[in-house]
Amino acid sequence: MAHKFSELRARMPPQAQARSAAKAQIMLAEMPLNELRQARGLSQKMLADVLHVQQPSIAKMEKRTDMYLSTLRSHIEAMGGQLEVVARFPDGVVKISNFAELGQPAVA
Amino acid sequence: MAHKFSELRARMPPQAQARSAAKAQIMLAEMPLNELRQARGLSQKMLADVLHVQQPSIAKMEKRTDMYLSTLRSHIEAMGGQLEVVARFPDGVVKISNFAELGQPAVA
């Protein structure tokens, strides 16, 4: 997936690539999936192509407030990222490793 | 949930509380859900009580490699923590905010 993402990026016009890189630098905060996609310089159509789904599926997915971890993982990987599941406690932070190697994504 | 967790902790023998606190300090790394539960000084039975489920459900849940985010969130909150969903990119890290306010957990 990451490979395909790089290909998509390479095909973007230079200005768009630069814009996307600048946005990526300021990504420290929290944002919903649709903003993250835009910050990565990707359209719903591009993401749909990578995931072999139709564009409306991406639109629907970005509005969901609950989903399988495997579905979310595929979505994030299609954007060139990696999913991390973290449990935050008052006295520490733990990365949950159960989901490091998920199988095929569940049907959304 | 966090409140109930505090009550459970308060009822633990002092040595167990100290042991649990010491373990919590070294929780920097990655671990599966069952190890996290043990590090928090909780038994499957205690967690089952907080979540109003039977103990075998906790055992089964801890073996799963995929689940709804809402299910995982309830599980982590029952341990006194907060779920964070993070997308890691080569150039930055983003917290996904779609799942900040989930409704009722999906049936596991």
From TrEMBL, chains A, B:
Organism: Rhodoferax lithotrophicus
Organism lineage string: Bacteria, Pseudomonadati, Pseudomonadota, Betaproteobacteria, Burkholderiales
Domain HTH cro/C1-type: 33-63
Protein name: HTH cro/C1-type domain-containing protein
Spans through the membrane: none
Cross-referenced InterPro entries: Cro/C1-type_HTH (IPR001387), HigA2-like_HTH (IPR039554), Lambda_DNA-bd_dom_sf (IPR010982)
UniProt xrefs under Pfam families: HTH_37
